[in-house]
Amino acid sequence: APQASAAAQTTLPTVATPVPERPWHVVILNDSDPTVPAFVAIDRAMRASLMAPGRHPVDSFAEALDVLRFPGSQIENELVALLAKKYAAMHVDAVVTFGPGAFEFVERHRSRLWPEARVLYMGVPIELVRDRQLAPTTTGIPIQHDLGGMADLALSLRPVTRRLIVISGSGDFDRTMARLARKQLEPYASRLTVEY
Question: Is 0.70 surpassed by the pTM of this model?
Fold first, then answer.
């Protein structure tokens, strides 16, 4: 019996429990309605990639500006105040932007909201980023709207076309697209009447 109590008092070496890695905090900022099927598909694929087994843990936070339906200038100050309050106590590692409205919003307010975050943009027309000086921690995948190619296709299908009408809305995104249309369709003004 004395040997049993001596063995019970022997301490075994302890194995250090690894400290779990802090998850990366990623804000996903959409400039429109995140329930649009295309955005749902993109979001689902991105989250699947971020959360894949064996990857660094990620906590993602979805935010929608919805500037396609609500002009950003009307609610921007309130949005900035809300997001500043929501993320005040959190270190945000990355911000992923969907669309030009979200990208422009982050560019304007990054220093206040997420100063140390890396920014990844997608769905931003190349014309908006081509000649712009971006922060070294900003990168993305611009899109190329080929409105000239679309006009060429229309003219090849209907060579007698003499008038091209561009229809756009009055929201921030619509005005951005109308500016791009004017720039890209300018070469056609000599052979077509282009109306906006």
Answer: yes
